Amino acid sequence: QVQLAESGGGLVQTGGSLRLSCVVSGGRLIINEMRWHRQAPGRPRESIASLTGRGDANYHDSIKGRFTVIRNNGENTVYLQMNSLRPEDSAVYYCSANVWTATTGSNDYWGQGTQVTVSS
Fold first, then answer.
1. What are the C-alpha distances in Å from 19 to residues 13, 30, 44?
2. Of the candidates 40, 93, 105, which has an alpha carbon nearest to the alpha carbon of residue 69?
3. Which residues, including other chains, have CB under 8 Å from residue 111's CB and lie 6 or more apart?
4. Which one of 27, 67, 72, 91 is at 20 to 30 Å from 117 when CA atoms are compared?
5. What is the model's pLDDT at position 53?
6. What percent of the chain has pLDDT over 70?
7. Within 10 A of 115 (CB to CB), how many other CB atoms are there?
8. What is the pLDDT of residues 23-58, one digit of tens each?
9. In b/e form, how buried is each residue of 56-86, taking b as 16+ CB within 10 angstroms?
10. Which residues fall within 8 angstroms of residue 9, CB to CB, at 6 or more apart?
11. What are the φ and ψ backbone dihedral angles of 97, each rounded to 5 degrees?
């Protein structure tokens, strides 16, 4: 059973930093792509960053230059390093992954989300 678990959210002041973690577990697996998303109250969920298995990263314009996706292949973990945080970054942050296993093939999985709140 593939599972994703996020951590690292919290309360931070404007201009501060946080590092979110997303750990993928579930035995022998291959992670094809990982994504970070966020959802603010009253707004739709949006995809903000992605990282392919080859290490190619893409970022939403709203976070370019401030957020970085980092992957630790050995630990099946992806991080979202968030710097220069702004109040408008406040949201629940989710990670998702397209994961292949020998028994289930390739499927998309989601974590439970972690709250990030940036105070002004």
1. 14, 24, 23
2. 93
3. 4, 5, 6, 22, 94, 95, 96
4. 72
5. 86
6. 100
7. 12
8. 999 989 999 999 999 999 999 999 999 999 888 999
9. eeebeeebeeebbbebeeeebbbbbebeebe
10. 18, 20, 93, 114, 115, 116
11. -145, 145
Q: Could you identify the residue written with the tokens 């709250």?
A: 115
Listed in order, strand segments (DSSP E) in the chain are 3-7, 10-13, 18-25, 30-39, 46-52, 57-59, 67-72, 77-82, 91-101, 105-110, 114-119
- Six token digits for residue 69: 């996706």
Which residue's structure tokens are 């997303």?
22
User: Which residue reads 């020998």 in tokens?
Assistant: 102
Judge whether 114 and 93 are in contact, CB under 8 Å: yes
